[in-house]
UniProtKB/TrEMBL annotation:
The keyword Repeat applies. Gene3D superfamilies: P-loop containing nucleotide triphosphate hydrolases. It comes from the Bacteria. Pfam families: ABC_tran. This is Sugar ABC transporter ATP-binding protein. CDD domains: ABC_Carb_Monos_II (cd03215). The gene is rbsA_2. SMART domains: AAA. InterPro entries: AAA+_ATPase, ABC_carbohydrate_import_ATPase, ABC_transporter-like_ATP-bd, ABC_transporter-like_CS, P-loop_NTPase. It comes from Winogradskya consettensis. GO terms for molecular function: ATP binding; ATP hydrolysis activity. Residues 7-249, 261-508 form the ABC transporter domain. Keywords: ATP-binding, Cell membrane, Membrane, Nucleotide-binding, Repeat, Sugar transport, Translocase, Transport. The lineage of its organism: Bacteria, Bacillati, Actinomycetota, Actinomycetes, Micromonosporales.
């Protein structure tokens, strides 16, 4: 008798109101494989994960089996956990302020039956065992936000492994790796390779198709809630082919670099001597039409710059000159930034100021700068909606409805709302933090084109990113940060390898995982 797959789903359908978001989804994940689940924003990936973990109830007729044993539906979260299914959420899903030990053991702490006291020695031993299994050790008493990015990735895997029996179980990574830099990704997959070689399975959800092509053994593709492919071997399938399967069309080739710079002009924006929690004398000058990237190691401070430029993060000191007017950064505010024509697209939606219980259109109208009660408000509102609609079309918002409530949109679609809102306002300066992080490859193409169009029209663009592919697609010039200030500059539309080499001071860009044939895992 052949061994059953690690996970098998059958006829999983989910409907919200009149919207059927999953339709008869049946697929299998084998033992010891990395299985990727890909699809455009809103195609139903997270909904499927939420069915597997018991957050959403599938329609009658669905089946979910782990190692051939059917789970009762709707899935009971504790039963899923007991059968060896673990989930790592977006951006590793760790609590920064809590220690490694607390992150490892939260939800699992056991108090003595009589004393009601927690046996910390037992908890430490349990946590340490996982790091032994991974052969990587991380200090248990350090708060997670003080760890290196690589160590944080180790903790996320170790934490999930607690629910999987040695050599068994399934870890679901729901966009967990999306904020990791190249070097941390290499480390992450080195560890995960060891875990799956021992027999544990991984279900990987990621919009980085280059990563999927590098590391996955097989791929399942969802389009509009339906299966397009189930368990297709990934061997020798490049990013382009995966994109075609996902989008149902060919992806136009993306040119790299901005190419619209007019550096002889007086700068549209200039930051000097910026001091903040992680910044220490940083400075950037951006000409009208120029797209400048800032990058570096995770703790180098470059990520703070868009927020300082948009007045969202108060700097301790430094000067901003925008359109020839100097401003003391210690006195700067978000409203002053908006008035100066500076727009911010943050990296995570929590910082994006989305009003989750309001519609897409209502969010696009926020914040209003003055004239709230004016008789002209309805006219302005209609004009705003008219300006927004083409952007919602261009970014393929799903559902394409300006009246949809934001909390009901998928994560990537929420990100698109923030982008559409600011792009529709034709800002003078755009401050972007990982602008394509949560969006699918089709929308990434559109966003890159839209940012370049904005630059061509004279907008000065700052892009903070740890993703060398994103930087290479967008930027004319890249500043590399170290210890809170600029330590190097790459000009002439640098490529991804050059960027990684500059950030890590080494030219060694290892493959994320050996080829499928080498791993001997492809049937
Ligand atoms: N609680 C809900 N109520 C109503 N609609 C919902 C709810 N949750 C999700 N949806 C809808 O279900 C569809 C699928 O969403 P889902 O989050 O599964 O997409 P996804 O493939 O994970 O997208 P992304 O890549 O953007 O994260 C979307 O159209 C979304 O608007």
């Amino acid at each position: 008798m052949s061994t059953p797959p690690r996970l098998r789903t059958g006829a999983v359908s989910v409907t919200f109101g009149r919207n059927r978001v999953l339709r008869d989804v049946g697929f299998e994940v084998g033992a010891g494989e990395i299985h990727a689940l890909i699809g455009q924003n809103g195609s139903g990936k997270s909904t499927l994960v939420k069915v597997l973990t018991g957050l959403y109830v599938p329609e009658p007729g669905a089946t979910v089996e782990v190692d051939g044993v059917p789970l009762r539906l709707p899935v009971r979260p504790l039963e899923a956990r007991a059968s060896g299914v673990a989930v790592v959420h977006q951006s590793l899903g760790l609590v920064g302020e809590a220690t490694v030990l607390e992150n490892m053991r939260v939800g699992r702490l056991r108090a003595g039956r009589l004393s009601r006291r927690i046996h910390w020695e037992h908890e430490r031993a349990q946590a340490a065992r996982m790091f032994d299994r991974l052969e990587h050790h991380v200090p248990l008493d350090t708060p997670v936000h003080r760890l290196s990015e690589e160590d944080r990735a180790t903790v996320a895997i170790a934490r999930a492994m607690q629910d999987t029996p040695p050599g068994g179980g399934l870890i679901i990574f729901d966009e967990s790796t999306r904020a990791l830099s190249r070097r941390s990704l290499e480390h992450f997959y080195e560890m995960l390779d060891g875990v799956v070689r021992a027999g544990t399975s991984a279900l990987l959800i990621s919009h980085r198709l280059e990563e999927v092509a590098d590391v996955a053994d097989r791929v399942t593709v969802l389009r509009d809630g339906e299966l397009v492919e189930a368990g297709l071997p990934v061997t020798r399938r490049g990013e382009g082919e995966l994109a075609r399967l996902m989008l149902g069309r060919n992806l136009a080739g993306l040119s790299s670099g901005g190419g619209h710079a007019r550096p002889q002009d007086t700068p549209a924006v200039e930051l000097t001597g910026v001091a903040g929690s992680r910044l220490d004398g940083a400075g950037v000058r951006i000409a009208p039409g120029e797209i400048v990237g800032v990058t570096g190691l995770a703790d180098s401070g470059y990520q703070d710059l868009p927020y300082v430029l948009a007045g969202v993060e108060r700097a301790r000191g430094g000067t901003l000159v925008v359109a020839g007017n100097p401003v003391d950064l210690a006195q700067f505010s978000p409203m002053a930034a908006i008035d100066a024509g500076i727009a911010l697209v943050p990296g995570d939606r929590e910082r994006a100021g989305l009003a989750m219980d309001q519609s897409v259109a209502e969010n696009a109208a926020l914040p209003r700068t003055g004239g709230r009660g004016s008789r002209l408000a309805p006219i302005r509102r209609r004009a705003e909606l008219a300006g927004l609609a083409p952007w919602l079309d261009r970014l393929e918002l799903s559902p394409r409805d300006p009246h949809a409530v934001v909390s009901r949109l998928s994560g990537g679609n929420q990100q698109k709302v923030v982008l559409a809102k600011w792009l529709a306002r034709a800002p003078k300066v755009l401050a972007l933090h990982e602008p394509t992080q949560a969006v699918d490859i089709g929308a990434r193409e559109t966003i890159v084109a839209a940012v370049k169009d904005a630059a061509a029209a004279g907008c000065a663009v700052l892009v903070a990113s740890g993703d060398e592919n994103e930087l290479s697609m967008l930027c004319d010039r890249i500043l590399v940060f170290r210890d809170g200030r600029v330590s190097g500059e790459l000009t002439g539309s640098p490529g991804p390898d050059e960027i990684v080499a500059a950030v890590f001071s080494s030219t060694d860009r290892r493959p994320l995982r050996g080829h499928n044939e080498e791993r001997g895992l492809v049937p």
